[in-house]
TrEMBL record, chain A:
Belongs to the binding-protein-dependent transport system permease family. Keywords: Cell membrane, Membrane, Transmembrane, Transmembrane helix, Transport. Gene3D superfamilies: MetI-like (1.10.3720.10). This is Phosphonate ABC transporter permease. The keyword Nucleotidyltransferase does not apply. Residues 79-263 form the ABC transmembrane type-1 domain. GO terms for molecular function: ABC-type phosphonate transporter activity. NCBIfam families: PhnE (TIGR01097). It comes from the Bacteria. It comes from Thioclava dalianensis. One of its GO terms (cellular component) is plasma membrane. It is a multi-pass membrane protein. It is found in: Cell membrane.
From TrEMBL, chain B:
SMART domains: AAA. Keywords: ATP-binding, Cell membrane, Membrane, Nucleotide-binding, Translocase, Transport. InterPro entries: AAA+_ATPase, ABC_transporter-like_ATP-bd, ABC_transporter-like_CS, ABC_transpr_PhnC, MetN_ABC_transporter-like, P-loop_NTPase. PANTHER family: AMINO ACID IMPORT ATP-BINDING PROTEIN, PHOSPHONATES IMPORT ATP-BINDING PROTEIN PHNC. It comes from Thioclava dalianensis. This is Phosphonate ABC transporter ATP-binding protein.
Amino acid sequence: MPVLTENDTRIWRRRTTGKSLVLWFGWLLGLAAFVVCWQRISGATTWFFVQDAPRIAGDIWTRATPPRWEYLSQLGKPIWDTLNIATLGTLIALVLAVPVAFLAARNTTPSKLIVRPIALLIIVSTRSINSLIWALLLIAIIGPGVFAGVIAIAIRSVGFCAKLIYEAIEEIEHAQVEAITATGASRWQVMAYGIVPQILPAFAGVAVFRWDINIRESTVLGLVGAGGIGLQLSASLNTLAWPQVSLILLVILFAVVISEWVSAKVRGAII
Amino acid sequence: MLQLKKLVKTYRTGDQALKMIDLEVPDGQVLALIGPSGAGKSTMIRCINRLVEPSSGEVWLDETELTRLGAGALRRARRKMGMIFQEYALVERLTVMENVLSGRLGYVGFWRSLARRYPQKDVDEAFRLLDRVGLLHMADKRADELSGGQRQRIGICRALIQDPKLLLVDEPTASLDPKTSRQIMRLICELCAERGLAAIINIHDVALAQMFVSRVVGLRFGEIVFDGGPTELSPDKLTEIYGEEDWEATIETVEDETEEAAPVAAVAP
């Protein structure tokens, strides 16, 4: 109730005095918590190593430059694997995500009480576990290699894609669905004519966005043995072959820039 | 041909949108449904094709009782009822032709409709209808490139290609300017006359309704409070439908209707 009466004139303030006080107290509490945390972190840090950091970093830099260019010939296959892991993983994820999204969206789910919670559970559980951890699990199950990487990326992406697609489904214009229903169209026809055209731009956007993310994620999958360029990275790191490490990082950077460019182009073309 | 018997719709919130509606629409009659916002006009026409499920009562279309039909039979019955919407409700990202042909969805199987392989006679009919409403040159345009009046014409084509017996028209002119409104109303009524269709037209604009239809039904709080010819609508009757207001100006517009530029009086809620 920000409208108060004082001396017969009605005045308006954004907040009442009580609310303002609570707000200020909240800020004070936050600031205090920040200071305390800072002090704790500071106490737990070995400052000697931190002071040493610039020197060590400089040392690694001199060891890592120049990159070992002749190693490039051995990176072609792994970076190709990495791209394939990302692309195949994204495709599989999209195929799985679309039905999950339709089951999760409030306006298309067949049952709000049973099916929707299950679909939401799938979304949350696949999203909450990092692809590196999925890869570790899958390597134990199906053995090391590119396939484990593809599946890890796919599972990790299902939740992400399904969530964004189901939000798009919930935001469609209902009148268009009504109009198609009124013609006597079947359930599937209503979906194909009334819903799909409306979510197509969102779907394409999600697909390239996730592909873009997956290229980054798949570069590290090799660290745990799930194929791709990460395998070379971990081998080079373990043998302290810094010039190779710097070359691999450059290649990854290049791949990511390319994927960024492609997805920007695709998104521009759709919208 | 269409008969509503004791039709009741109570929403889950407890609002009674329709209270025991009894209404009969003979073949080929164009009927305007007027009444204030929230009187239940939209609910009523949606209860006929069951976009909204009626709570009780019966809806008869010829020899079929619609409220108890199963999913498949309901879809077949819906083919006989074309619907036209206030905001056109075209599928924005599809082309004009796809939108018109979507009126045939009830007749065409899923895979054929997905591949857009409609029977040639449907395509012929679509072209004929587009020509009739004067939008043949727009067939390949995307629906969102069209103006309001053009979109509503496409909406009309989509309803007519269903080969309906009855048109359910929900505020066809509410988003259009006065001149386009008249053109659209004229087009709907002409097409109904050409094809011998019955129509229920929800409309806010009393003057426009009086201009074009042969029967007016007034709805207030979910009950029919007026049923008669357009000339029988007196200020008293309008007060009964809408509430207290000075109605002289509204009715006067009807009398000098021949003047194309005549201002169409807004109806106070």
